[in-house]
């Protein structure tokens, strides 16, 4: 049998007294939490113990005595051992430390009056003070001291967190039970040596409570600030619930604008952060902290962008550059269409359809150039006011940039839609006529291909239509290919912008900061190394916390956003491009119901 005693490092040099802690249920282990110094009154110790049990919901008990010899306390050992008759126990630990030695000497007294000592070294006597040493059982008893950093264990969270939630009704592991015992005993550590009271204790906070005036002032000022933010959000929700804003056109437009989507997400984040309800679970606390840090970093980056934009008249320079760039893009598109209206790459195109499509698209470019020149006097003023959106955060500025790119490339989107619709119509027409030649048809009700008999007139008309569509397909496919490539370039640029927005919104900055600055806060496990192994003393191990990996931090604490939902696979995307279906990068997956 191996008895494991988790002993805090801060108590290694504590004055003699009683050890407070807990026996882990289902395990042959004890966790020492604090040492109550001599002198004390046993009645006050029992009262303090019952008070701590009600505050911590931990089954605290007096584990035994701790003896640290000093001058003038020669009879302290016998006095502390006699206290076992006052406090109820199943096993009483008698731990003592000799001057000049790092190891402890431990004896375990059972409630039957049997005394066990560590026989791993074979140097202990078979009897002590006239009490039976239980030779057969005593020889099998082995004691191991595991020294741990009490502060780190109390502040750390053992991962995976889901396991602790799901298995709360089951018996937890020994290590997890030890971590939970220390973390739940936080009220026990509020008593320090500077407090006026009948009891003096030693634990990690014995030298004085950790506190900060700035932190306390922020805590006091956060309450009215959260109430103000909650009131402003309630006013904003009332404005958003106005009937005119609930109409289908307004809801459709707002769902397609990146700025409105980002504003909705930031509103949800503010509601989460400004909530006066205290986070009771670790996941909830980390989510609030990550959102708060993300919001703070977003605002800081937005203010830096504003300071850069409105310095040295960069807004005017950007406005003067925008119109020539738009003219250059329109000129390049016009030259591309003129190239397609000829014999591109030596391909033989259908002259009539080529002329119709080319003139149709050239007319759209002419309208676009007229629109740009009509708006050119107001572009600088528009950019000046749009730049102020960065005061709400860098994500808002990037969302506005994405919407501006969508508006400036709207003609390219129109070209892509026209070409995709024509190409899709011909692809589906050719596939339907191909089934006609094989005596098949598509059953709409059963969603399958069934056999069907056609007469001669139907086959003749089908042959003519199939021939026409087949010979017109190369011309339509070329236009569709060119405009699809242009559309993919725009979508790729917008995708990079949305990726940056998602990185700021969802990246767990607070959790990653804890992992870098205080890695013990997010524990994946522990490791042990031999601290001392002296003759005649139990084995002493030092427990060190293993932090979780950075990839695990991102995976566990990433804030879910709309871009975290599953997208189409590469195979489905290629299929859509081949058959001419429109690609909407902003569309989300939803469950369809009949």
Automatic annotation (TrEMBL):
Superkingdom of origin organism: Eukaryota
Location of region: Disordered: 117-138
Key words, A-Z: Glycosyltransferase, Membrane, Transferase, Transmembrane, Transmembrane helix
GO biological-process terms attached to the record: GPI anchor biosynthetic process
Membrane-spanning residues: 291-310, 356-375, 382-409, 415-437, 458-482, 488-511
GO molecular function ontology, one term from the record: glycosyltransferase activity
Record-linked InterPro entries: PigQ/GPI1
One cellular component term from this protein's GO annotations in UniProt: membrane
Biased composition (Basic and acidic residues): 118-138
Pfam family, one: Gpi1
Protein name stated in the entry: Phosphatidylinositol N-acetylglucosaminyltransferase subunit Q
Source organism per UniProt: Clupea harengus
Lineage: Eukaryota, Metazoa, Chordata, Craniata, Vertebrata
Originating gene: pigq
